[in-house]
TrEMBL record:
Entry protein name: TIGR01244 family phosphatase
Domain Beta-lactamase hydrolase-like protein phosphatase-like: 3-110
NCBIfam families referenced in this protein's UniProt entry, alphabetically: TIGR01244 family sulfur transferase
Transmembrane segments: none
Classification via Gene3D superfamilies: FAD/NAD(P)-binding domain, Protein tyrosine phosphatase superfamily
Domain FAD/NAD(P)-binding: 152-268
Length: 557
């Protein structure tokens, strides 16, 4: 935690954890403001978690979420009004502190504080508000005619897709001028969190610093995106800075909408409520699994699309396998509530999965969507949809609840000209070019190609985008590269065995190995070894380094 004093009454900070509240209170702060919407990051505690601890420490806590990079004048006015009512000094935080500093700057400017004084104050705290001053001077508009930076290629997002693309581009054209925009300090190997939740991986092995992974020669712009102006080939960043480009690749990942389930945020990490979809909660899953001796274990899956559609049931299989091996399964009722109508979307893999559902005596509840959780009471409510479309509410108790939150495209994508009607980056599913905006490409979880949202998909998409982008810039010749929808979901059905589901568009099986080596429709110990021992180093040392092992793009025609 880094506390940066704006003045005697206000300090700002990057994201905090519940464990930081004690130090904040000890430093003399009397109030906390959260300016970050829930669900922006994979390691972000919800405000309700912060609020609970803050109140226990005697602090007032206020939630004023502002979409990353989209601070409006009305937001600044609301911040000023909120600040005026809270006991001082006030501690405000967001992802990096920039939003909170921007809110203060705009609020103070509206009340007549001179711009040079605002700039000097924020600069002393470590925040450069020069671009905010430019916005103030232009009557609230960020002018895009003047760029703070210009690059041949700009990549939005430093996740699996974004870094893999940067490396693939550098491997093809080492002198290419690339900037990668992402505000996060840490990059996560998210496929490993299922294994953390089963006690197989240590959580620390799934995290590396972003700085250690961005390819040499790629400029890292550590900021959040506010808006796109494709007609001017411009991206507007948090703090009102402007970056221009010749080609833009958009790979910001997906947003976990924890607030989409009533009561969930306030009980995560407590009362037996957990999720392998967050870095800090996956260890709690394993704690819950080990601690449950008897009772009801409930596992949920929200409506599609979600990243790694097999992960909700992987948590079930690995938990039930532990209970079976420890001779507790007869005392534990295992239930799977799935918003969908089938266990898995590719029918060839269902028979193997059903054999494990039967082994673990798991009860399947299809077309049940989790809507509400009461952690202290250990109750959960689901909306059930019947064949005619009528809905009823179903209530159940639980001793352990593994939740997968509903998921949507990031806010700044959904409101942008890049998005389709559903909010996803609108791309051609074969070439991954934007359907209507030239020079723009989409890959990873935020694009609307109808493939499974997995790291394996990003591994195949990155070379396709790299080839087509360079072709469009005139750097290489030849046919278009095409993406066949490949995705992989290693379904961990028990400790030591995996059904290695690999498939493309339309549910077509696309196995990477001959059946005599790994039969992808049956559980395999060799597939487990691939997941446990080979895929992490392949991810860190090959995919993110531009080594396209088994990922060479197909060419059209």
């Amino acid at each position: 935690m880094t506390i940066r004093a704006i003045n005697a009454g206000l300090s700002v900070s990057p994201q905090i954890l519940p464990a930081d509240i004690a130090a904040i209170a000890a430093a003399g702060f009397r109030s906390v403001i959260c300016n970050r919407p829930d669900g922006e990051g994979a390691d972000q505690p919800a405000f309700a978690e912060i609020e609970t601890v803050a109140r226990a420490a005697g602090l007032q806590a206020a939630y004023q979420p502002v979409i990353s990079g989209q601070v409006k004048d009305s937001d600044a006015e609301a911040f000023g009004a909120l600040f005026a009512t809270l006991p001082k000094p006030v501690f405000a935080y967001c992802r990096s502190g920039t939003r909170s500093a921007t809110l203060w700057s705009l609020s103070e400017a509206a009340h007549g504080r001179p711009l040079p004084e605002i700039l000097a104050t924020t600069r002393a705290a470590g925040y450069d508000m020069a671009a905010v001053a430019r916005r103030i001077a232009n009557g609230g508009r960020t002018p895009t005619e003047q760029a703070d930076a210009t690059h041949e290629v700009v990549i939005i997002g430093g996740g699996a897709a974004g870094i893999a693309l940067a490396s693939s581009l550098k491997a093809r054209k080492p002198d290419l001028d690339i900037a990668l925009i992402d505000p996060a300090d840490i990059h996560y190997y998210q496929p490993g969190w299922t294994m953390v939740g089963a006690g197989v991986f240590d959580p620390q092995t799934t995290a590396k610093t972003m700085a250690s992974l961005i390819p040499a020669g790629v400029r890292w712009i550590k900021a959040a995106v506010a808006a796109f102006e494709p007609e001017r080939s411009a991206v507007i960043l948090d703090g009102c800075r402007v970056v221009k480009y010749r080609a833009l690749a958009v790979a910001p990942g997906i947003k976990l909408n924890w607030a989409g389930i009533e009561g969930l945020a306030g009980t995560l990490g407590r009362n037996g409520v957990t999720s392998n979809y967050r870095y800090d909660l996956a260890p709690y899953t394993w704690e819950c699994v080990q601690g449950l001796k008897a009772g009801r274990a409930v596992f949920t899956q929200p409506p599609m699309p979600i990243k790694c559609a097999g992960a909700p049931q992987k948590a079930l299989y690995l938990s039930a396998d532990h209970w079976l091996r420890s001779r507790r399964l007869n005392d534990i009722a295992v239930e799977f509530y799935n918003a969908g109508a089938v266990l898995f979307g590719v029918k060839d893999y269902v028979p193997a999965l059903m054999s494990y559902i039967e082994r673990y005596h798991a009860q399947l509840h299809f077309q049940h969507t989790l809507t509400k959780v009461d952690g202290p009471a250990r109750r959960a409510w689901f909306r059930r949809t019947d064949a005619e479309g009528a809905t009823t509410m179903v209530e159940t108790d639980f001793d352990m609840l593994h939740v997968v939150p509903p998921q949507v495209a990031p806010d700044f994508i959904r409101v942008s000209p890049l998005a389709d009607a559903a909010g996803w980056v609108d791309v051609d599913q074969a070439t991954l070019r934007h359907r209507t905006l030239p020079g723009i490409y989409g890959l990873g979880d935020a694009c609307n190609a109808p493939n499974a949202k997995t790291a394996a998909a990003a591994r195949k998409q990155a070379p396709v985008v790299a080839h087509n982008l360079l072709k469009d810039l005139g750097a290489i010749q030849g046919a278009d590269a095409v993406y066949d929808g490949y995705g992989s979901c290693p379904l961990t059905v028990e400790r030591g065995r995996i059904v290695l589901a690999e498939f493309g568009y339309g549910g077509k099986r696309l196995p990477s190995f001959p059946a005599w080596l790994i039969d992808d429709t049956k559980p395999s110990h060799l597939a487990w070894l691939l997941k446990e021992r080979m895929l992490p180093p392949i991810y860190w040392k090959a995919m993110l380094r531009g080594k396209e092992w088994m990922a060479k793009p197909q060419m059209a025609g």
